[in-house]
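Exercise: predict the structure of this protein bound to iron/sulfur cluster.
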Amino acid sequence: MTLIDAVYLLIFFHGMIMRRDFIHKIKSYLSFLKESDFIFLEKSTETSETGRKQESNSGDLRQIADEIACCAKCRLSQGRTQTVPGDGNPEANLVFVGEAPGYYEDRQGVPFVGAAGKLLDKLLSRIGMDRSQVFICNVIKCRPPDNRDPFPDEIEACEPYLLRQLEVLKPHVICALGRHAAQTLLKTDKGINALRGKFHLYHDIPLLPTLHPAAVLRSPGQLRDVEHDFDLISGKLKELGG
Ligand code: SF4
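Solution:
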């Protein structure tokens, strides 16, 4: 081997070492991107899409709530302290619908507060959920005087707000809480015991009627029926993917 051959050989090996070093650096850089920026960008795109949907639903629900707040389409506007449009997760797969706000709801502007609300929380925790995952509202958004049943013309005036809320939320399951809510939504005069325990359809959304938590507080023996209904809801949510 001549001196020149040795120099070439040296340059060749140096090149190989440099190339390996270069490839190693590229690999490290790619792995750095994968572990930080690259993944972050993928996640942030996903998160921003979810965020955008959440923001859009929140905005649409707020718009409906604003309209409800100044609604005077029926006589119930005259006696309310405030409207109770509904409350909860703007992307909820499960929506609870009661009939109308009561005394405390009218005072606070939030549905299902007080002892009945606490029982609802317990039933939710039974199926591994909490209020932050669901949306709760009523068919009627203003309290009827002395908690009387709403009149048909009041339901007719108010129900479009519920339909618009459901259009925004697109829930997988609706749970009608109590006889009045179930009868109003399903346009039937059947009793709650005939309706509960099975799914019906409300505008193509599976709807399961169950007893109102306040009724269960008055008749604790019916708690098992309601727990059974919540188990059915949980099963249906799993079946429908959430
Ligand atoms: S009950 Fe409904 S329709 Fe009647 S005033 Fe209140 S928001 Fe309007």
